[in-house]
Amino acid sequence: MVFIIIFIIISKMEISFKGKRALVTGASQGIGRDIVKQLVKCGAQVIAVARNQELLGLKDVGPIDLLVNNAGLAILGPLTEVKEEDVDRLFAINIKSLINVTQIVVKDLLARNAPGSIVNVSSQASLAGLNNHTVYCASKGAVDAFTRATALEYGPKQIRINCVNPTVIMTDMGKLGWSDPKVAGPMLEKIPLRRFGEVQEVVDAVTYLLSDKSSMITGTCLPIDGGYLSS
């Protein structure tokens, strides 16, 4: 009897995207690649976009029910050394392409009078100042503001829009950039859990926000930061 009850509970917690079409940007590596794998595992038909030039020129992708705006770029350094082309590239990928893709998907959802769910991958850098991250912080702050505004605008149409705000995540690039204890130490000291995040922890949060399990959540920026922002 106990086994049957546990099985029922677990079954109710399972997430299924069967019959749904999903679009994931920045899908060639790291978080994006694993999001694609998870959505396929949950039954979605997934369109994966990997190239930055495709983002800015993306037009007709057919009906999309789920969107993950994961593509992003980081150019770091002191503000006085930031070049104009760096600013243009950061905002082109981190916010302009995100707006472009979201616009395409929302127009289609409205035309079909269909509900939808969108998750934007932002950063803890949108919620806290980080040294040598000035323009990156600004671009991710724009992602959060865009998320809140679009959630307000399209909530009445049953289109939910949220974002996740990860700390350092142990992708291949994350491991490369944060493997030096002298670099990682000061950041880890600010994270109550005393560790960086794993890719699957972001994937799980994105999957939840896309799913009907979060049907009353929209306009939220969810930190995945081990408590970094609590300090």
Automatic annotation (TrEMBL):
GO terms for biological process: glucose metabolic process; xylulose metabolic process. It holds the Pfam family adh_short_C2. Transmembrane segments: none annotated. It comes from the Eukaryota. Keywords: NADP, Oxidoreductase. GO terms for molecular function: carbonyl reductase (NADPH) activity; L-xylulose reductase (NADPH) activity. InterPro entries: L-xylulose/Carbonyl_redctase (IPR051737), NAD(P)-bd_dom_sf (IPR036291), Sc_DH/Rdtase_CS (IPR020904), SDR_fam (IPR002347). PANTHER family: D-ERYTHRULOSE REDUCTASE, D-ERYTHRULOSE REDUCTASE-RELATED. Belongs to the short-chain dehydrogenases/reductases (SDR) family. Homotetramer. This is L-xylulose reductase. It comes from Rhamnusium bicolor. The lineage of its organism: Eukaryota, Metazoa, Ecdysozoa, Arthropoda, Hexapoda.
